[in-house]
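Researcher: Sequence recovery benchmark, item below. Answer with residues only.
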């Protein structure tokens, strides 16, 4: 998590306690929805969208982190949805489980594990007022926030 020229950064001294809490909660919302809504991937995305919409007029720090959380959930949503419907197709059509399916499930489990660990880490750091930038998602967030 390094400084990138042109990136939006925040000083921990400039961020209030309330801002830290709301920004941290933007990441925790997706985890809560993940555990409540298993195995339907839409619940994670919906919870994050609702939290984002509720905080879109908040301070820049909170909006930035809500946006980053939303972008990350949006990207993983497609992977999880494909795995969900592939599994449903196998169950309903009594199809054979292929090596490709197993490989995809392993990929999905790995991506979700990384996302869960990253989300917990980011939530804790953001609660401390530390601005955490995720690879790729932070650049997209910066570009969206500049508009």
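Model:
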């Amino acid at each position: 998590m390094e400084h990138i020229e042109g990136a939006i950064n925040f000083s921990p001294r400039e961020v209030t306690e309330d801002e830290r809490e709301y920004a941290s909660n933007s990441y925790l919302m997706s985890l809560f929805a993940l555990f409540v809504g298993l195995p339907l991937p839409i619940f994670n995305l919906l919870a994050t969208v609702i939290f984002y919409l509720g905080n879109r007029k908040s301070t820049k720090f909170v909006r930035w982190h809500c946006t980053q959380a939303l972008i990350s959930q949006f990207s993983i949503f497609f992977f999880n949805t494909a795995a969900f419907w592939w599994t449903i197709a196998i169950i309903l059509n009594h199809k054979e489980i292929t090596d490709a399916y197993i490989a995809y499930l392993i990929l999905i489990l790995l991506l979700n594990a990384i996302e869960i660990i990253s989300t917990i880490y980011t939530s804790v750091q953001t609660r401390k007022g530390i601005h955490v930038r995720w690879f790729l998602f932070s650049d997209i967030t910066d570009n969206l926030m500049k508009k």
